[in-house]
Amino acid sequence: MKAKSTVLITGASTGIGAVYADRFAKRGHDLVLVARDLARLEALSERLRRETGANVDILQADLTDEVELAGVESRVRDDARIGILINNAGASAAGGFADQTPDDVAKLISLNTTALTRLVSAVTPRFVKAGEGSIINIASVVGLAPEFGLTVYGATKAFVLFLSQGLQLELGPKGVYVQVVLPSATRTEIWERSGRDVNTLPAVMEVDELVDAALVGFDRRESVTIPPLPDADQWKVFDAARQSMIPNYAQVHAADRYQPEKALAS
Ligand SMILES: NC(=O)c1ccc[n+]([C@@H]2O[C@H](COP(=O)([O-])OP(=O)(O)OC[C@H]3O[C@@H](n4cnc5c(N)ncnc54)[C@H](OP(=O)(O)O)[C@@H]3O)[C@@H](O)[C@H]2O)c1
Questions:
Q1: Domain of 167: which CATH number?
Q2: CB of 118 closer than 8 Å to CB of 163
Q3: For labelling, which of 74, 152, 237, 261 has a CA lying 20 to 30 Å from the CA of 228?
């Protein structure tokens, strides 16, 4: 029987990534865990080796550091055992846009979008050649709702959603499965790390429930998984509205409301 593929998980030292590590180890996969905090990665890998017998490798890396990111890129590019990439590492930033410095926003973009995209780019040729492989990208419902006021964070997550949808169209026919997961507020350190008290939020999902739900979507080969959304048809209606506009973009002339003579008259 073919061995189960190894799973590389970014941001595996705590939170959502650590639960993914636990679940995939219990499913019989070997792991490569990536994050900055070596002590936490070692503690998790020791527990998982002991409890599940999985082989667990650690790659200590700051994904906002070009050189360290390049090391992780090489690993996903060259290690043919890695058949599942989970792009989970991410952060939010404290305050509103006016409080954030150019360096704050650049760091967020670098972790949440650039690192994620580079890792997908590094692994894709190998997956396409093999005609198989899975990519799980962790986005957020914030990427659908500028109303939440997490503007740059939400913009990075909208990028992850768009990227994943584009990859689904491009890579799906080549045998590569891409899932994008949109959690809502989940009890992890991300809130504290970005200066927010999770206990002030109206509703918070526990991290085990979030990951187990996301894995139900993964097992169904769902493309977009929104664990907290009660009515899946709402997403379908939203996406259908978006798609219904596509044929209308091909126009030689601007819409009537932008014709200067008509705009003046109205
Ligand atoms: N929790 C929520 O409410 C929520 C909601 C929607 C989406 N999400 C998304 O879910 C994903 C996981 O977040 P979480 O809630 O589990 O957050 P978390 O508990 O803060 O964990 C974030 C993980 O990313 C790693 N990380 C952070 N900065 C890094 C860097 N520069 N280089 C490498 N690793 C880095 C952290 O490890 P080290 O500190 O050891 O590096 C940690 O393992 C993120 O993409 C987040 O945007 C979370």
A1: 3.40.50.720
A2: no
A3: 152
Q: Is residue 240 part of a domain?
A: no
**Which residue's CA lies nearest to atom 25 of ligand 1?**
11
- For the question of residue 258 being annotated catalytic, the response is no
Best residue among 36, 37, 108 to mutate for probing ligand 1, ranked by most atoms within 8 Å of CB: 36
Domain of 53, in residue numbers = 6-231
Return the residue whose CA atom lies nearest to atom 18 of ligand 1. 190
Per-residue pLDDT tens over the stretch 133-181: 999 999 999 999 999 999 999 999 999 999 999 999 999 999 999 999 9
Ligand 1 probe mutation, 140, 188, 200, 211, most atoms within 8 A of CB: 188
Q: Is 110 near ligand 1, meaning CB less than 6 Å away?
A: no
pTM above 0.90, yes or no: yes
Structure tokens at 181: 């997961």
- In this structure, is residue 260 part of a structural domain? no
Measured in Å, residue 28 CA sits from the centre of ligand 1 at: 24
Q: Cβ of 70: how many Cβ atoms within 10 Å?
A: 13
CA of 151 to the centre of ligand 1 (A): 17
Rounded Cα distance, 194 and 258, in Å: 42
In a domain, 86, yes or no: yes
Order across the sheet with 224-225: list the strands: 56-60, 31-35, 6-10, 82-87, 134-138, 177-181, 224-225
Q: Please report the DSSP string for 61-130 in residue order.
A: --TTSHHHHHHHHHHHHH-TTEEEEEE------SS-GGGS-HHHHHHHHIIIIIIHHHHHHHHHHHHHHH
